[in-house]
Amino acid sequence: MGSSKGDDWTYTRKRTEETKYKWTIKDFSTIPQKCGDKIQSPSFFTEDGEREWKLAFYPSGCNLLHPDSVGLFVTPLMPEDVKFKIELTLAIFTPEEMIRSRNCFIQWKKDMPDWGYQCFIKRSELLSLKKSNDSIIIHCDMRIYDTAVVSAFDNISSDLSKSLKSQKRSLINDFRSLFTDPQFSDFRIIVGNEIFHVHKNILAARSSTFAVMFKHEEMEENRKNEVKIENMDSELVKGMLEYIYTSEVQDLERLACGLLGAAEQYDLGGLKNMCMDTMYNLLTAENAADILVHADLYRISRLKEDTINFIKEHLTEVQSTESFRKISNAGLLMELLLAIGKQDGKTNKTDEKNT
């Protein structure tokens, strides 16, 4: 009897989830030209908020086998415990017309890091097109099918998790709308010719720097209800404010180095950690010297140590870069040379033992 009752609480559930996402890439002809360089889209989600994805776009090919092609991939950001099937359509548009569309049906397995096309379209074909504002628009349509055996408790837990994720996403979207709509703002941030309409209580709650500014009524910024920021460009300020309102930055990979200074100045510890993790994940021979300079400037010891280790392993390539030759901090250069010297010393001692 007990076994029969238990069976009644277990069942097989089939689900279908859909998502449609558009990603606009501006200034296509000027984005990184090096083979293997990629740009990633902001995160997007299935309708229930349960699965998170990103698109990876390789404007000059994803590897040396396809240097003249544009690569396009879709990547899940959350690990999957179950297999699922996905009907995927990827397309590239200009503002005027569709250029290329591809459709496939995939049996996705949990050990698949991404899926896509190494040769989605020839780069020369995209460059030859007349595009408004030099922009392309990538469309990603997905329909996901999966089957899971669940118990009543699992179902309740899953529904609760979905609900919480959906509520979190809804809250982020509401605060993003608050940032972009000036209607109820009470403070202005002026950067050059651009004005950001913001809310004192949100800025004060997220940044101790802003909180101190607003507590002192005699400060000019508080009396005028505006502040001028002159040591950052408008793109960085927009990224900082986007983080303050949503805890996200849609173009973080490109802005991480600059936002590190903003995070330090306005006491945004979460943004600082996001920038640090992003910079480490993007570490290459080409940008290692720049990242080292920023890590030293803002006293991020772990990133600095990791970058020094990376430079030691790729010394020849790093030394040939323009950013390495521009390092002007004598103390930092000495620290790097000493670290390289220690490695060479260990290597020489090992060689002596082996001879």
From TrEMBL:
<protein>
    <submittedName>
        <fullName>Rdx_0 protein</fullName>
    </submittedName>
</protein>
<dbReference type="InterPro" id="IPR008974">
    <property type="entry name" value="TRAF-like"/>
</dbReference>
<dbReference type="Pfam" id="PF22486">
    <property type="entry name" value="MATH_2"/>
</dbReference>
<dbReference type="GO" id="GO:0030163">
    <property type="term" value="P:protein catabolic process"/>
</dbReference>
<dbReference type="Pfam" id="PF00651">
    <property type="entry name" value="BTB"/>
</dbReference>
<dbReference type="InterPro" id="IPR011333">
    <property type="entry name" value="SKP1/BTB/POZ_sf"/>
</dbReference>
<dbReference type="InterPro" id="IPR002083">
    <property type="entry name" value="MATH/TRAF_dom"/>
</dbReference>
<dbReference type="InterPro" id="IPR000210">
    <property type="entry name" value="BTB/POZ_dom"/>
</dbReference>
<feature type="domain" description="BTB">
    <location>
        <begin position="185"/>
        <end position="253"/>
    </location>
</feature>
<feature type="domain" description="MATH">
    <location>
        <begin position="18"/>
        <end position="142"/>
    </location>
</feature>
